[in-house]
C-alpha cells in the first residue's frame, strides 16, 4: 500500500489569527486563553503561489528610477462619496474590505454601486447571506438597473473561483466573507482560518486577473472584522461603514488605503429608496435647536479634505462619587482628563467634584486636537449654566501650559463657518485674520486659555 500522504495541521488563534505548530492553552500573541483551534494546512497554503507581479521568477535589485511606476486605472463606482473615500474611484485589481455592524447598509451600498458599474463592465454580486430572490427584490425596490448585473448565491470558495474563471467578471462583491468556506479546511465558516483562507484566495484571484474585489465583513462585538485584524493586512483598502442607531446618516471612512488618503469621509443618508449621497454634509451634525443652549458649542473640524461643523455637548454635574466620572462619546477620554487639568491649572476652574460627560452630536468621532478649545468652552458653559453667545463657533488646540495653539487650515474653517451664517469665532491667534473680521463674522483671536474663557463668557 502506498504511504498515505500525511496532512499537516496548524493551530490558529480565533481572535488574532496567530498560527502555531502545537496546541497551547494561551495564545502567545494576543494572550487570550483557549482560542487555538486545529486547522488542516491546505496544500495551496503550504506552497504559496506568488501573485505574479510582472511574472518574474527571480527577483533582482533595481534602481527605482529605472522602474516605471504603475499607473492605476480607476473605475467610477457610481457613488461619488464612495469614490472619494477610495481616493478617486475603485482601482482595478484592488481588494477593498468594507466593514460595519450588521444592518448598517453594506449590502445596500454595494448593490447600488454594482448596479451602476455593471453598465460599463461585467460585474458579479456573490451573496452567501441572501438568496438571489432577496437580492433581486431589493434591486427592484430600489429601482436599480438590473440589466447587466450578474448574481450568484454560493458559499464555497472553490466553486466561486471556478464560476469567476468562466464568467470573467471585472468587479466582484463577496457578501460576506464570514459566510464563505473552503473545503481544504475543516473549521467552520466564519472562523479565523476560513475567513483568512477565503480572503487569500480572492486576493490571489484579484491580483492574477486584475479583477477588483469588494469583501464585506461584519464587525464582531470587539469591533474587529472576523477576529480582529486578520484581514486588514491582506487587502488594499479597509473602509468602515458606521452610523449611530436612530440616525439615518451613515459615514464611510477609510481606515487603510494603499491607493489614497485615509480619514477621507463619505456621507450617506439611508432613505426608503436606499442610500442617498450627502454631497455637502457640513452642517448635518448640528443638533438643530435654534436657541443657544448651555453646554453646547459648535466647532469646525476637518474630515479628510473637507471642513465639517460639529456640535459638542458637555454636561457637568455634582458627583455623588469619590471618583467623579469623565465620560466621552466621539472623543478621546484621556484627552478630556488632560484638558480638565489644564483648565484647573491655567484657568483656575476646577471640576474635581463634578461628573463630566462630553458628547459629539451625530455619532461622529472627532480625532483632531482642534476640538480642545470647544470642549473646554462646552464644559465651562455647562458648569456656569450659561450658553455661549448665539452663532458662535470655536476651534483650537490647548497645550499643557495653557496656550492655545493653531490648527491646520484655519482660513478654510473660518470660511465654512461664515458660509453657514455664524457671527462669531473664537480661534487661535495664528489662525485669525489680522483685521479681526472674516466677511461678516467677528473673529476673536486668543493666545491663552484665560483669554479664551473670558472672551467666551
Ligand atoms: P443592509 O444593506 O442589508 O445592511 P448590511 O448588509 O450592512 O447588514 O441594510 C439593511 C438596513 O437598511 C435595514 O435595516 C433596512 C435599511 N434600509 C432602508 O432603510 N432603506 C432601504 O431602501 C434599504 C434597502 C434598506
Ligand atoms: Mg448584508
Question: Could you characterize the architecture of this molecule?
Answer:
It is a single chain. With 457 residues, the protein is of the alpha/beta class. It has 3 domains: 9-39; 74-279, P-loop containing nucleotide triphosphate hydrolases (Rossmann fold, 3-Layer(aba) Sandwich), CATH 3.40.50.300; 284-456, Ribosomal Protein S5, domain 2 (2-Layer Sandwich). It has 10 helices and 24 strands. It starts with 8 loop residues before the first strand and ends with a helix. It binds thymidine-5'-diphosphate (TYD) and magnesium ion (MG). The site of magnesium ion has 4 residues, from helix 3.
Q: Look at the structure and give the CATH class of the largest domain.
A: Alpha Beta
Sheet/helix structural class = alpha/beta
**What's the name of the CATH homologous superfamily of the largest domain?**
P-loop containing nucleotide triphosphate hydrolases
Count of DSSP H/I helices = 10
Brief rundown of the structure:
By secondary structure, the protein is α/β, with parallel strands linked by helices. The chain has helices spanning 43-46, 80-86, 106-117, 132-141, 157-167, 192-209, 333-347, 372-384, 410-419, 449-456; strands spanning 9-13, 19-20, 36-40, 74-75, 90-91, 95-100, 123-127, 150-153, 171-175, 212-218, 237-242, 249-257, 265-271, 274-277, 296-303, 306-318, 326-329, 354-360, 392-394, 397-398, 404-405, 424-428, 437-438, 441-446. Helix 6 (192-209) links the parallel strand 9 (171-175) and strand 10.
